Amino acid sequence: MAKTTYALFPDWVFTGDITLTPEIEKGIQEDLDSLDKGVKHNTTFGYTTLKEVPLTGNLRKLQLLVGSYFIDAIKVKHKPALERQVEVVEPTIVGVKPGHSLPVMLERNRWYNGCVWLQTTNKGSGLYMENFTGKRYSDPPGIQDYTHFEPGKQWKYCFWPAHIPAGFTPNASMINTELFHCTFTAFPNPKK
Predict the structure, then answer these.
(1) Spatial strand order in the sheet of 84-96
(2) Is 183:112 a contact under the CB 8 Å cutoff?
(3) Could you give the percent of the chain with pLDDT greater than 90?
(4) Which of 177, 150, 174 is nearest to 17 (CA)?
(5) CATH domain 16-33+40-188 topology
(6) Closest Cα partner for 159 from 132, 186, 189?
(7) SS3 breakdown of the chain: % helix, strand, coil, rounded to 5?
(8) Residue spans of beta strands (DSSP E) within 65-126
(9) Is 66 helix (H, G, I), strand (E, B) or coil?
(10) Which residue intervals of the chain are DSSP H helices?
(11) Residue 166: phi, psi to the nearest 5?
């Protein structure tokens, strides 16, 4: 029997549900419906809002709420980060059309990625994370995961390390899967 067991270089993923009132949910949906062409950028998989254009109204309030949920989530595993200036960076809204997927992406110079499913069904896009490290080729098949799936659900959030390549599975529903997506940084606190 092993004398000591521990995780080496752990990557922590945090998931949960955001609690909103029906009025706030309705306000977010109205803001999504009113996104105009000056903010939306059409893509082959659907659309994204331009990172250069800040979110406003209820979507801005959602951004602040996601930031507070992230701080609550990291308290357990990343306590030293609480002494830093944690920021929500490049918040965007992503729409994945039926029959499409969002390819694997990697955010450089970021600490964590985050998303909230704003609109989805049980057949909508889910998050998938890939392990492209040398571990993929050194471990015997079937012992450890190389791909991890996180199913989507309306108002569910997921925060994962930004160095892990991730994308969204094909949307097999009849409606767009709409997501709030952002990244996080943790700079030294200038006040100290």
Answers:
(1) 14-17, 156-161, 112-119, 177-188, 84-96, 46-49, 40-42
(2) yes
(3) 64
(4) 150
(5) Jelly Rolls (2.60.120)
(6) 186
(7) 20, 35, 45
(8) 84-96, 102-105, 112-119
(9) helix
(10) 22-33, 57-74, 135-138
(11) -145, 155
Amino acid present at 135: K
Place of tokens 């996180």: 150
pLDDT, one tens digit per residue, over 18-42 is 999 999 999 999 999 888 777 899 9
Question: DSSP 3-state assignment of 96?
Answer: strand
For residue 8, is pLDDT > 80? Answer: no
pLDDT, tens digit, 9 for 90 and up, residues 89-102:
999 999 999 999 99
State the Cα–Cα distance between residues 80 and 118, nearest whole angstrom.
31
Nearest to 179 by CA among 56, 89, 49: 49
**8 A C-beta contact, residue 159 and residue 112:** yes
